[in-house]
Amino acid sequence: MATKHEQIIDYIDQLPIGEKISVRQIAKALNVSEGTAYRAIKDAENKGYVSTIERVGTIRIERKKKENIEKLTYAEVVNIVEGQVLGGRSGLHKTLNKFVIGAMKLEAMMRYTGAGNLLIVGNRTKAHEYALNAGAAVLITGGFDTDDDVKKLADELQLPIISTSYDTFTVAAMINRAIYDQLIKKEIVLVEDILTPVTDTIFLKTMDKVSKWHEYNRETLHSRYPVVDENMKVQGMVTSKDVIGSESDQLIEKIMTKSPMTVSGQTSVASSAHMMVWEGIELLPVTDSNNRLLGIISRQDVLKALQMIQRQPQVGETIDDIVTSQITLIKGKMKNEDAYRCEVTPQMTNHLGTISYGVFTTIVTEAANRVLRSFKKGDLVVENMTIYFLKPVQIDSMLEINPRVLEVGRKFGKVDVEVFNEGVLVGKAMMMCQLIDRH
């Protein structure tokens, strides 16, 4: 039987898009405590079913698909610009396809403004009215209000009219940044993108007998299965090691490995790969927030996804992308040894204008990665790293990075990295890495 938390999530999922919900209303409708209702609404917000806006409340919104992630809802815009909703609240769940900055004459402005747009404009009531009639929402900058007639029109057309204290330039930059962040998120492959769903997953129940494992093993030739209870909650994992020497009529729950490591659908594939390598795991159950089985991912699934990620063009650059794109290969001082050069750009610095600790870590990690790849093809996971940051490095400096492989085995590598600025040693690092074979 579903828990109260699960019942609330299912209830919210069934609500029509745009519906306003409250803790009190959920508590009354499902006869639960307000604390339980609040926790479930927060969980629904994390899952992307609802959006909470200050001074407005919580609204049921459409959950975004991965390919649509870079499109913002008007509700998200309100939160980004710390805005106040003046009218058209029932349209906050809608998605905008582009925003238009109204820094031109009214006729020209209207030529660029259409349905599904967001017009960013100052204290120009006529423009507010025209935009709404054209099917666009309005974002008023500078903290200005608008006429009551315009607010009434926004309510009728279910198109939000929002006011923010920020100026037009700042607002455009904030929205652009939010879209850019979404683009980066779109490129990150999550477990939910590659999992084998529960409908296609073979699992065992705690009250099944060992003979059931043998039956599945003959049918599928697989030897690892998640074990669930009657509520589909993961209780353990069972493998051929557990089964060896067990009687056929013995219960699975007596021999399984209890409380196995699990991941959620929102875990990144890269993070799952690290867990699998470190723990020597071949198969991970994927669970929801209540530990119910959603599916499984195997080591093969993860490696395939990692290779696909490397072939994909990056749409939004992260700081790591900016840093690694600056690193170029040069000839090392020692024969047959590679070295790298990297210029310290403004994005790589801290508030003092010197290279940030995080960027320095990225530089030495990337250098170690590249030099180890020349020894062994595949991916690596940094197991531990010791960094000595000896001297500050200022903006526009040219760094020389000298990685040296001390030891390399079938599954690990040890690298020493020295970083110089104008011939002076400014930092050192010692790294131990696990190597993931791609085969």
Automatic annotation (TrEMBL):
PROSITE patterns (UniProt xref): CBS
Entry superkingdom: Bacteria
Domain CBS: 195-254, 256-314
Keyword terms of this UniProt record: CBS domain
Pfam families to which the protein is assigned, alphabetical: 4HBT, CBS, DRTGG, HTH_24
SMART domains xrefs: CBS
Keyword Heme attached: no
Name of the protein described by the UniProt record: CBS domain-containing protein
